[in-house]
Amino acid sequence: MKSPELMEIIRTLKLHGMAQALERELQRAETQGLSHPELLHGLLEAEANHRREQSLKWRIQQAKLPWDWTLQSFPFLRQPGVRKTQIMSLAGLQFVERADNLVFIGEPGTGKSGLAIGLMREALANGYRGRFYKAQDLLDEIYASIADRSTPRLIKKLARYDLLTIDELGYLTLKPEQANAFFKLMDERYGRKSTIITTNLPYPDWYALFERKSLVDALLDRLKHHCITIEIQGPSLRTSQTKNEPS
Questions:
Q1: pLDDT digits over 125-148, tens only?
Q2: N or C: lower Cβ tally within 10 Å for the chain?
Q3: Does the domain made of 71-232 have the CATH classification 3.40.50.1580?
Q4: Nearest to residue 21, comparing CAs of 33, 2, 39, 1?
């Protein structure tokens, strides 16, 4: 069978990776004398690689990461408040497998968001589904869902993500309904899925944020039960920050 006929069948079956590799693999088979099983293996491998790349692209798109930061781009040498060995150990993603939470606490500019995004990107690259939210955006979405009574559906959707990152949980103005829904979300994820939170508030200051001691007690009880807390005490990375460097 000629390659144009093969290509037509491959395209009909929507084997896009195989279509891209067909001529190359046929030429390799001719020059290297590959057997039919070896040729088939090369074509199937090309299709598998293409599907993995497309799947990763889709997961990154769905995660809505705001920046292209990675752990490799994080300026560890400029941030003595972060232990690189600890972060690279977390990049092994055992905390996601265990459904542990991860909380970064530190002043603005110390690299909390960069580390959170870097770890989420590692999770996405390893097949996990994730979603990144600025805390204010998440709480605004929750508040909008209260108006049309879709909060249970929203929480159910958010509870299914393998990794949820909530960035910049800080000095926000919360309505009681938002605080209740946030607690419900964390309760649904408790012990089932991992959540990364970045904040400039030490845990005691969360009482002023949510304004209900009983709710904060219950929230911190669940959040900290299976949790790694990293307090970053170091300089702001925004000083003399280079282009595309995380902060």
A1: 999 999 999 999 999 999 999 989
A2: N
A3: no
A4: 39
